[in-house]
Automatic annotation (TrEMBL):
Family annotation (PANTHER family): ARGININE/DIAMINOPIMELATE/ORNITHINE DECARBOXYLASE, ORNITHINE DECARBOXYLASE 1-RELATED
GO cellular component: cytoplasm
Name of this chain's protein: ornithine decarboxylase
Record pathway: Amine and polyamine biosynthesis; putrescine biosynthesis via L-ornithine pathway; putrescine from L-ornithine: step 1/1
Similarity field: Belongs to the Orn/Lys/Arg decarboxylase class-II family.
Record organism: Adineta ricciae
Amino acid sequence: MVFSISSHSTLRTQYKQPSNIQSDFQQQINMHILKNSSIVVTPEQCTAQEFIQKKIELLTDEVEPFFAVDLEDVCNKHIRWITSMPRVAPHYAVKCNDDTNVIKLLAHLGACFDCASKGEIKKVMDLGVSADRIIYANPCKQSSYVRYAKEVGVDTMTFDNEQELMKIKQIYPNAKLVLRLVTDDSNAVCRFSMKFGADMNTARRLLEKAQEIDMEITGVSFHCGSGQMTSKAFVDAIQNARVIMNYGQKLGFNMKLLDIGGGFPGNSGTEEYFGEIAVAVNRALDEHFPTEENVRIIAEPGRYYVASAYSLATNVIASREMVDAESGETKYMYYINDGVYGSFNCVLYDHYVPEPCFLPQNESNEKFTSSIWGPTCDGLDCIHTSIQIPKLNIEDWVLWKNMGAYTISAAVQFNGLPFGKPIYFMSKQFWDQIKEAFETPARKARNDNHFIRLNSTDCSNEIDDDELPWIPEDLSEEALVTIQ
């Protein structure tokens, strides 16, 4: 289902908070929002910080890290994408964040998917997504995964070398191949070109080899690196793609697919930069791939969709006061209940520098040199080696915004310690428009409390009647879905 912009304009929120929301929100939500896998419907739109503040107030002795996930933010990102680059069909990069609720919502909105493994393909298709909405965008694939893609009908996949081409020829001769080109990703946060992509001369040879062995090449792809910091990389890559597609067409291939990859910014505050990239991409596409050619253009945004939607709440579990032997300065070490093996693995693997935020009661103009550490016994579990922050106490809460990209998708429970689990929230107005995304044919009859009860095959966290989140008395439709 693709949203109509005119009929769903209410989803394009401006993130302005009415003055009465916080008081109404705090009065009408109760402790049952603590259920980890619940989607909580609030009377009005609220900020992640307001939501987190209320949940913290309701906590008892069991204190674990958690994410506040604003699903409205994901939807607003989708609307921004299809209005900013209407020619480019987004294929969400599942590896960035494989949260089932995010996948369900994006599928409902009409997005397609970039999968990199059998597991990702299965997860997406198990949620009802058809094979023609998936591109298997991993240039180096395990043979058994190629066989699985063949079994389920995912026929569009990338490659960048002759060995991969011959492997696919042997296993899946009817596959529709997309040749991945190398790019200049020197300005990206995470570079991929040292691992993937064929240069221009190699790309020509691969096209010739594909012609020789009678394999179908349907298009060209590239990736300018995750967190790309310049629009010029996209423009240059689109121009190179045009050259290779022209050569492929001369060889007799029906080159009708261009995949411009990912790398689009998604943190809050990057809207203007995304707009600049969109303008540059649109201009380059119009120049090199005019609409009359009917080339299908797709992209693989990941962090763009989810980075700003996730805010992480962590608790200070221990602290140390130390005096610098040389300067005499008092410094502090803080240990929080999530770290680089959990949600903060983005520090190691995504080169991300998370910025802490503090609840009003912890804000102070006086700052101290501090370090912030994760909860494990590993000395590498450090989030910040030196940062100026207010003095904190044990059991204080620290918030971290823009934590949706490459966080929970790579987290592990090292030392048996849990990492942040998501709790989803949205306004009733938004829920009324997207609730179909979370319905399932296997659901049982609704009870008198107006919520959807899923059976044990649908949900790993069944809830009892007395565990419901806030539901307003005048809510005539279901207000909660519990998702596996």
